[in-house]
Amino acid sequence: MTALKELGYNDVYHMKEVYMRNDADFWVAAFEAKYEGKGAKYGKEEFDHLLGDCMAVTDIPTAAFAAELIGAYPDAKVILTIRSVDSWYRSMLATVYAAHIDPWRKLQSLWDAKAASMWALRQKYHEHLWWNDFPRYGKRFFREHNDLVRSLVPSDRLLEYEAAEGWEPLCTFLGKDAPAGKVFPWINKTNDFQRTSREVTAQIYWRRIQDVAKVVVPIAAITAAIWWRSGIKAFLGKP
Question: For residues 80, 85, 88 and 94, what is the CA-based torsion angle, rounded to 10 degrees?
């Protein structure tokens, strides 16, 4: 994602945008339509409504709709990032799966509306992508997803790309010049995910503190006023 932004693709949609834009409910409905038969499956009209201002998409949940997005935007170029399945699996265990089994995430969903929506979305993709058992079926999903993308995208619109290759193949494929003097952005996705998770958690707790303060501060003010008035009366010897 960082590399795409360096190349001028400023509006890149990924999981962080789902949270920031309050889009989780849309994706929950999309999963239910695709996997549970609830309503019409999403197509170009629905994706345009949500993603029409974006220049690129990446990450879950959009990866779960690869076939639908490829069909909706047949002229789009597709970058299939490749890596060792074991490396991907370890990273997912430390990030997406760790968040799924974290009891604090469930607790947050009980008092925060945005956290509740994200929790509902998390439940949907864990249920439908690897049957609520990532340790057992995660690698299978990885292989099947890559094979699906390869089967749907013509070779002239598909780049199988590993980040270690740097700027050259990416820029050639996209018709862009490599950023002058820019080192390819090596982002540790695990650390980045965990940092973002901490930021989101802090936002949730801060909203809760603000909500509590809206109630507690007026009560405290009223209590203080009553106490002060009672104290004045006692000082003046009035009943």
Answer: 160
Check if the beta carbon of residue 33 is closer than 8 Å to that of residue 39: yes
40 contacts: CB under 8 Å, gap ≥ 6: 33
* Cα gap 147→153, rounded to integer Å: 10
CA distance 30 to 50: 11
3-state helix, strand, coil in the chain (%, to 5): 70, 5, 25
Hey, is 40 helix, strand or coil? coil
For 77-188, where are the alpha helices, taking DSSP H only?
Answer: 85-94, 96-100, 103-111, 113-130, 134-152, 167-174
Neighbours of 101 (CB within 10 A): 11
Give the pair of three-digit tokens for residue 193: 């995910």
CA atoms within 13 A on the CB side of 47: 20
Residues 6+ apart with CB under 8 A from 158: 77, 78, 80, 149, 150
Q: Whole-model pTM?
A: 0.79
Give dist(CA 173, CA 165) in Å, integer.
13
Mean pLDDT per 10-residue segment, the chain (239 residues): 90 92 97 96 96 94 97 97 94 91 86 91 97 97 98 98 94 94 74 55 51 50 55 50
DSSP assignment of 158-194 equals: EEEE-GGG-HHHHHHHHT-PPPTTPPP----HHHHHH
